[in-house]
Amino acid sequence: MEIIIQFITENIVMLYILVLAIYLGMEVISKVPTVLHTPLMSGANAVSGVVIIGAIWLIRNAEPDNYFVLIIGFFGIALASINVVGGFAVTNRMLEMFKKKKKK
Amino acid sequence: MERPILDFLYLVSIVFFIVGLRGLSHPESARRGNLLAAAGMILAIIITLFYPFGNTPNNYGWIAGGILVGTVIGSVAAIKVKMTKMPEMVSIFNGFGGACTMLIAITEFRTLPPGTELLSGQVFTVIFSVFIGSVAFSGSLVAYGKLDGFLRDSIRLPFPQIVNGVLLLVIIFFGGYIMMMDELNYTIVLILLGLSIIYGITFVMPIGGGDMPVVISLLNSFTGIGAAAAGLIYGNQVMIVGGILVGASGTFLTILMCEAMNRSLINVIIGGLGATTFTGGDDKDKVVKEASHGDTAILLKYSQKVLIVPGYGLAVAQAQHACHELESMLEKEGVQVRYGIHPVAGRMPGHMNVLLAEADVPYDKLLEMEEANKELPTTDVVLVIGANDVVNPAAKTDTGSPIYGMPIIDVEMAKNVIIMKRSMRTGYAGIDNPLFYGDKTKMLFGDAKDSLNKLKSEISNA
């Protein structure tokens, strides 16, 4: 019990952010038409690559001879970059198709 | 730069994410929304690169290398991928995001100073990140395998629900055990990692291939939650808010998709649709009428209203362009042609819209399921191209059918139904379709693209 209270006290601001962000996340995509489900999923998927920040943080704070962390961090960054770059690029490609046809 | 400025810029990138996702949910602002979210991500990455942590080694070479490798692979994959393979692509990208969460979380254990109090919220968050990252990773890979077809639904585990339940309890036990230890035992962490990866596999494995879009959306929200949990480890707001935004919107989107299929999320996860073996009635009195290209062409040409119902078969055959050409030809002959799009046609909601958009089919020709059903009684010919489960009347009538309750495009209301299909094989749900034996139904066998091209030449000759 103590530990839970301690955790809440230490992270109260984070918890506020957490709750508000959950609500925001649901609100922000309400009333999305079916047509956009796939691009939205793909775009949201790219945003989830934000975990790359953690990997960068990890490497920047690692000792230069700590190859375990460096190599794991390297793979983490590479994988997350694929997620981010690929995700946004693929979403853009999908959405471009909608746009091209609208101009006509 | 000073910390407060950088912290403020982090806030700016969060706003970009929010406005971007908001934009993505409306057709006219979708593209800008996506670019905004991407800009937010670039900003967040740049801030992190230069954030003053104190006297840190930085190791910029490693970071640059990782970003370079990832960017090259990611952009090549995104440019090269065929539109029909989109669901597979999203699935695998998502798995990579999960893998990153998993990797940084296990490293976090490694860097805990000896003698750290393990019974803490911090350690709990790390354990949780390991778990959710691993599940998102291995689950996405299984989903990829199922969509790609190299993992068949027939690969079955005995008592999947029980296995999953027990596995989850064991994982919780090990998680608790780690927190109760006096000194961190890294082997236990690796056991936890292994079990979580296995759980991701056994979680997705029993779910039928037809339900993969829902699963990918769910795993996508897992990746988001994982990113947020990792953000808690580092106390980084961008990761927390970005991750939770994806987690919440992903969960919400998952529920929307389930609603489109008239099923609950629990039903999708436990039901294991594709794994159900469904035995229809006896096949004796079932007669299939076959149509020729010539007959079909004439039927189409002298109709007033035609509705095309596309499915995954159209995507596989890359027939969207041929389909659009046929449609324009018929329009020139004075036939009104429109498309009836089922919400889960193809392998992802909206998949058909993307494909037809690629072929320049005008937006206003695409009818959603309800509109299409309203039009059907006055429609002369329905052309079902490579769709199966979404027009299966068993969903309405047969309470024993695994897709019972799913709304369908009720093509039998139209005067004639032409089904273009390669063979009599069942659709993704693996069940028989009574529509094929209906009075109004004729089958036009062959590859969708070939058949459409033949129809085109027959129409111009007729």
Task: Describe, in plain words, how this protein is organized in 3D.
The complex is a heterodimer of chains A (104) and B (462). With 104 residues, chain A is an all-alpha fold. Chain A folds into 2 domains: 1-31; 34-104. Helix content of chain A is 80%, strand content 0%. Chain A has 5 helices and no strands. In chain A, α3 (37-47) runs antiparallel to α5 and α4 runs antiparallel to α5 (67-103). Chain A is flat, with a radius of gyration of 19 Å. The model of chain A has no long low-confidence stretch (mean pLDDT 86). By secondary structure, chain B is of the alpha/beta class. Chain B folds into 3 domains: 1-80; 86-275, no CATH class; 293-461, TPP-binding domain (Rossmann fold, 3-Layer(aba) Sandwich), CATH 3.40.50.1220. Chain B is 59% helix and 7% strand. Chain B has helices at residues 3-24, 30-50, 60-80, 86-110, 121-148, 160-180, 186-204, 212-234, 237-260, 265-271, 293-301, 312-316, 320-332, 351-358, 369-375, 394-397, 448-461, and strands spanning 305-310, 336-341, 366-368, 381-385, 416-421, 441-445. Chain B has a 6-stranded parallel sheet with strand order 3-2-1-4-5-6. Chain B is elongated and about 85 Å long. The termini of chain B are far apart. Mean pLDDT of chain B is 86; it is low at 273-284. The chains are: A mainly alpha (104), B alpha/beta (462). Chains A and B meet through α1, α2, α3, α4 and α5 of A and α1, α2, α3, α4 and α8 of B.
Q: Short description, anyone?
A:
The complex is a heterodimer of chains A (104) and B (462). Chain A has 104 residues and is an all-alpha fold.
Q: Summarize the amount of helix of chain B as a percent range.
A: 55-70%
Amino- and carboxy-terminal Cα gap of chain B: 74 Å
List the uncertain runs of chain A: none
Which word captures the global form of chain A? flat
Mean pLDDT of chain B: 86
Report the sheet with the most strands of chain B, covering strand number, pairing sense and barrel closure.
Answer: 6 strands, parallel
What is the oligomer described by this structure? heterodimer
Structural class by secondary-structure content of chain A: mainly alpha
Query: Helix and strand string of chain B, N-terminal first?
Result: HHHHHHHHHHHEHHEHEHEHEEH
Number of helices of chain B: 17
